[in-house]
Amino acid sequence: MAGPTHLAVGLLKKPHGVKGDALVFPLTDEPEAVFRTGRTLAVLDRGGQPTGQEVIVTRSRAYHRAWLVHFEGMEDRTALEVLRERYLGLAVGEARPLEPGEFYLHELVGLRVETKEGEAVGDVTAVVEAPQGWLLNVKGASREHLIPFTAGVVRRVDRAEKLVVVTPPAGLLEI
User: What is the CATH code for 6-94?
Assistant: First the structure.
């Protein structure tokens, strides 16, 4: 199975003001690099696939917990309305190389999960964003588990071994 061609890096929430700025919720830990002037971003559908439409960043700045981004040729609110609630994607080849120990969330899907003692828990079927943080949806032989993706629970992610090692809180796997 081939990996994605684009990584979702932002969600365009809505137009902001009357001069063509857009309020974008960043889905990256490096928004200043991703939303830099001159960057071309693909518009993605809800499944993360490119729609064929692209936008070019002409200016951007941090704004509270989001970013205000202006795109080439979009000078008013009306032009941005068609992009409301659409994802913006960066071509995989344009993303910075990952450091050892780093990974993309989509790479977790399909990895097997074991406890640090080597007990099989199941396979990651999805990564879910919840108010309290990221959760791994893990399907085991007889049940599914939502495992918090936190440093205290997830001890190791090994892309080469396709393995996630966890230390679940007492009773979590019995629920």
Answer: 2.40.30.60
